[in-house]
Every structure is written in structure tokens, then in C-alpha cells.
Amino acid sequence: MRERLLAWVKRSIMEIILFVLCAILAFEAEGFFSVDNLLNVLRNVSMQGIIAFGMTMVIISGEIDLSVGSAVAFAGCLTAYLTQHLAGAGLAIELAVPTAMLAALLVGLSVGALSGFIRVRFGVPTFIITLAWMTVLTGSAQLITGGFPLTPFPEWYNFLGGGYLLGVPFPALVFALVFLTTHFLMGYTTLGRSIYAVGGNAEAARLSGIEVGKIKITVMAIVAFLAALAGIMQSAEIMSGAATTARGWELDVIAAVIIGGTSLMGGEGQIRGTLIGVVFLGILVNGMTLMNISEYWQLVVRGALILSAVLINRAHQ
Amino acid sequence: MSQSSFKLAVEDLGKDYPGTVALDGVSVGFAPGEVHALIGKNGAGKSTLVKILAGSVTPSRGRILCDGAPVALRSPQDAFDYGIAMVYQELSLVPGLTVAENILLGRTPKRRGLIDWTATYARAEEVLARLGVAIDVRARTGDLGVAQQQIVEIAKAMSFDPAVLILDEPTSALATHETEQLFRVVKGLAAAGVAIIYISHRLQELHSIADRVTVLRDGHHIGTVAMRDTSIAEIVQMMFGEVAQQERPDDLQPGANPVLEVKGLSRGDAFTDVSFALYEGEILGIAGMLGAGRTELLRALFGADACDRGQVLVQGQRVAAPTPPKMKAQGLAFTPENRKEEALIQAHSIRANMCLASMGRIARRGYITRVEEQAVVDALVTQLEIKVADTEAPVSALSGGNQQKVVLGNWLGNRPRVILFDEPTRGVDVQAKQQIFEAMWDLSRQGIASLFVSTELEELVEVCHRILIMREGQIEGQVRPGEISADELALRCMGTARNA
Questions:
Q1: CATH number for the domain running over A33-315
Q2: pTM (two decimals)
Q3: Mind telling me how many Å the CA of A203 is from chain B's nearest CA?
Q4: What are B47-63's pLDDT values in tens digits?
Q5: B383 and B449 co-located in one domain
Q6: Where are the domains of chain A?
Q7: Cα separation of B324 and A207, whole Å?
Q8: Are B145 and B95 in contact (CB under 8 A)?
Q9: Is the pLDDT of residue A1 over 90?
Q10: B342 contact residues in A (CB cutoff 8 A)
Q11: Which of A64, B168, B326, B415 has its CA 20 to 30 A from that of A115?
């Protein structure tokens, strides 16, 4: 009985910590435990969260993507840029916006697939490839916007970032959908099993007849696609394409994945864990803001808690 | 040689590990100026013996004498202090540093806290000069050939002025002309009075390097003989002993249709112009010495490495540019030589490891559940008698034999036609070994063919229908197990006739 309890504690340590954090905030932070506030938390975490699920797959496969922050900014700017030009060329705005969105998603997907291809074909680590993309994409976003935010969007576009459906923020619904999809992919498909296998031991996977190259290209494309998706929603929330948004997101995203118990060495991790990691970070920021803790202190506390969470996770593995 | 003339000697030395006796009652001495070869099959106890001498393993029984006086070697440092240096099989050089830095690693002469390069190069050159070789001490070590790196490794050991030098398979990675260079260095050291202990698998080279040979078998000291008084055939006889030949069940009949045909296959300098056919239900062995190209051949057949020339046909159909996924789809399976690195995901569960190759077959349109996997895994666990309490436990928790069965099970789930076994019994206990053979025989009854590579020639003689002999990358001939004994097979693999 005691052993089983201990095993349960070990397995669910992050859930327990998250629960304790919520309990403390419910008493200490005024207005924390209200439906409005919790929905707000969900909306705030949803864009980074969407990327974090893709990042989990990438990290489990033994790779990394440092360019997701710039990819978010670039996708938003590209959508704005294309909308402006398509509308300027006489296309109806109702058609220009979806066309621009689709193009931004496809470009995002291709950038990721290209990273994967370079990784597989030339053996360059994704750490380097995506580091290069990071500056290329930030620079490209600046180039197409000319350094100033573009604001070609019609009013209704805001729904994608700031709207509500059945009382739930629209990005939170997308977040939930991406969670369910990636959870299913990783847990119940041969693609997911292959991703774990490739990250666990790429050579064993290859000699078991798994197409390691295809798997790597696929995960890199998925995370880049999700970053572009988040970028579009982000541009909808702020109603502009700005090259300076989402700076440093890659670190928050990776932090959420690691807090969720995914191993940076590859081969181990869970989408469910990342969900906890994302919500944990979101609640932490929200709670501290409600408690009027200064921005500077928030950064310090957040960093310290990220490290503690990872240490606790490590100690229990 | 009298007892006192030995620089280093062991008396009645023994080492027990839980469940096995690795070494028992070994008494042998090593004299200054002699090259003393240590010979035996895998698991004969050679490594245990030299590890004891190098201070990294503590013996369970017996004495170690240095200059006739008993000594205790509790750590590598102790051994070092008594003048015993060891060069391991795996090179321990830092490729990015110069030769001189590697030779004097951690001991580079300094002046005012900075490295004194003039002195460093001079000292390193002096060490190499004593070995009688000319290697540029300023060269980047990684740019040197393997033989030269091996010599740098020896130079590093010699820079400590040891009285005893242990070499663990120094020629295993070398080509013939490189071996000669190494031998000159080793003989020079012996002439200078160093006692050299030399482990090797290459029996052919013993005549050109060793003065005396000690043969170990199953941890026992079989004998020590002077090289000039013996022959390779006699040494092989000592290594293998009288083996009770186990019989292959006689109901196994290979079919008439070839499932796998290889025509003129070549790959770089690994193997050349290899041709053979493997028939339904046949167990075909490939015998050969280390470096004969057997592993490379199996890897190429499975598409793990590309070939330069030749054809691979599965059931009469040519497979162009084989890759592992392609060959898997053709019904081939491959259990690699290095189980831990190439076949298993150590941190993952036994279940996950048993569904690696077959998940495409278990899943319906890419959708797979644990329940479906579990049914397949449970059936395989029963079939292969894998001893496991919980298939969710990490595969690393299993013994070598059970891990090997997991690797085999992984492929059986995919219903293969041909299984390529590379050293399936390495690091596997006797009982599991027998179970693996029985699994091969069972597969043969179902018409599944096996291509079986093993360094343990007795196994091939016991298990196979037919054995190909591979030497220096070529198929030299074939034999049937009834016609040949393991030691005769060993001689043929070496290219030495019985009475040479």
C-alpha cells in the first residue's frame, strides 16, 4: 500500500506540485480562483502551449528547434504582408486574409521540413540549423515589414486571437485540439512510437527498418507548422504583423517541455507532461501578477522554480 | 626458466564472479625480454587475467609476484607503481591533440605555469626514438593511421618506463603491413628487456611475434609452450579441447527454393565478389576470423550499408539499392552484433522493444494500442521462454540472453522469411544459447531460413546445415558440419592446412 502510494507520488509529482501551487494561489492571490481568470490563464498560455506540444515531439525524437519564437513573428508578419499586398492588388479582403494565412502556414511547414532535410542529409545538428533560422526569420520579418508593424487586418480577424466560442477563448480551443491530436499521435500511432524509438536509439530504430530520416523531417515540419499557426493567432490578437513579437518564446516553450518531464536526451517524455508544464508556467505568472509581485522579481522566481521543478523531476526518475 | 627470473608471475590465481568462475588455478610467469602471448576463445579468462595484472580487478585467490616477492595490486595505480603498464584495445588518445601532447598527456613539461613546447616535443621525440619509429610529434593525432595511433598509444605507456607492458589485441584493427611495423616496435622493446604480455585472436601472427604462448580455456590454464616447439594446429587443439559434439535434430530439411541469392556482391575493402544462395528453412553459417568481413556482409545484405557492386535477390526478385525498410518489407530480419547499441532501446520497455520492427504489422492504418501490442508480445514471451515478470520493465533490466530473445522476438512479430543473425550468442549464458539454437531449428521447420555468423565455431558446427568459410573478404569455400570439426574449421578460416 505504501509502496503504491509512493509510486503514485513519483509518477504524478508535477501534478501534485501544480495542485499545491493552485491551492496556495487560491488563498493568497485575490481573484485567482474565478472562471474569468482561469480562462484568461488558458488564453495566455495557449499560443506558447501549441508550440510546446510540437516541441515535445521534436525533443523526444532527439532534436531541438530554437527558431520557434522567430517563426511566430515571421508567420504573423508574412500573413500581414500578404494580406496587404493581395488586398492592394484588388483581391477581396475576405479572400486575401485566408489566402495569406494558408501561405504563411505552408511556408512555416516548408522551413521546418527543410531544417529536417538538412539535418538528415548533411548531419548538421538541429541546434545549429535552427539557430541560423532564428536570425534569418527575424531578419526576414523585419525586411517585409520595413521595421514597422503592418496593420492590414479587418476587424473580424481579431476573433482568431481574442475571440470567444461558447464562452471559451478561441486560442484555448485550438490549444485543446492540438493537445488531443499530438497526444493521440504520440500514444496511439506508429508515427508516435517511431518518434520515441528514433530518440531512444536512432541506430536501433534504423536497423529495425524504421525510416529515421522521414521521422526527423516530419517532427521538424510539425513544430514549425504549429509555430506558424501560433504566429497567425498572435497577429490576430494584436491585430498587426510585428517583427518584435514572441522574442525569446523558444526558451519558455522548451522550459515547459522540460518541466513536463521530457528528457533533453530524447526518447522519453509525454504530451500530457508538457500540458502540465505549460499550465504550471502560466499559473505562476498569473498568480504573481495578481499578487502584485514586481516584474523583476517574477523573472527571478520563475527561473528558480523552473530549475527546482526540473530537479524534482530528475530526483524522482 | 626458473621462478626467480620472472619479472612478474602469478601463482594459483583465481577469480569468481557470482555464478561463474572466470579464472581458476592459473600459474604463469613473464620474463624480461620475452613476448608472451595469451590465447583463448572469448570468455576463456584472458581479459580477467590481464585486468588483475593491471590492478583493475582484484583476484579471489592466489598470489601475484613481482621480482619474486608477493605484491597486492589493489588499483591501477598500484600496478603502475610496480612498473606494469597496459594498452587497451580501444585507443584512449585525444584525436585533436598533437602526438607529443598525447604521449605526455597530463604531464607536459611546464615553465612558469605555461607549457614548455620545446621540452614537450623533445621528450616525446625521445620516447618515439626509443621505439625506433619516426612519427612527427607535432602532427594532429587524429590525422594518423590506426597503426601509428596504436604506436603512439604504446609510446604513451612506454613514457612511464614500465618493466611489463600488456597489449590487448593491438593488431585487431590493423592491415598486414601495419602489423609488421607494430611488431618491429614490440620486438625492439622486448630486446630492451621489457616483459611483454600480448593478447591476440590472430593465431597466424603468433609465429612472427611470440616467444612463448599461454593457452586458457574456460578460466583454466591449459598450458604454456615455447612457440618454436609447437604448431598452430597444436595451439588450436589446446584452445578447443575435446568438445562433446551436440547433434542437430535430424528432421530439419532445407527446401529446394532459394529465398536469398547473392551475386558478386562487393563493398570497398570489406568484402569482394561474394556469391551464395540460401534455401528455404536452411541454416547457413558463415565462419571466419575477426575482420574477415562477415558483419559487413550481413549489414550490406540488410541494406544497412551500401554496396559497390553485385546483386541481392529475394525469392528470385532483384532488390535494387537495398535499405533496411526495403529489406524488411521483403521479409528479411537482422539481429546485429552489438545488441546494446544497435538493436535495443535500453531505456524503453520490453514491450516497446518487441514491437519496434513489427509495429507496422500490428497497427491498423497507423493506429496502434497497447492491448494489441500486448497480445503479440505475450505470445512471443511464451514462445521464446523469455524470463520476465513485467513486460513494461525497461529492457536494460534483462540478462544478455533474454535481451537477445527480445531482439529475435522483435523480428518474429514481423513474420520474416530470412533472419540474419550476427553473433547472437555473444554475452549469452549457456541455457539461453541453447534456447536460441532451438528457436533457429524451430524457424527452420517453418521454412524460415537463417544466415548465422558466429566467432564460436563449435556453434556453427552444431547448429548449421552448411557453413561458408570467409577469409579476407572472400568466400573461400563451404563445408558441411558432419565433415569437419571445430578446430579443423578454425584452421581453414585462418588459411592454414592441418599439417602446416
A1: 1.10.3470
A2: 0.82
A3: 5
A4: 889 999 999 899 999 99
A5: yes
A6: 33-315
A7: 6
A8: no
A9: no
A10: 203-204, 207
A11: B326
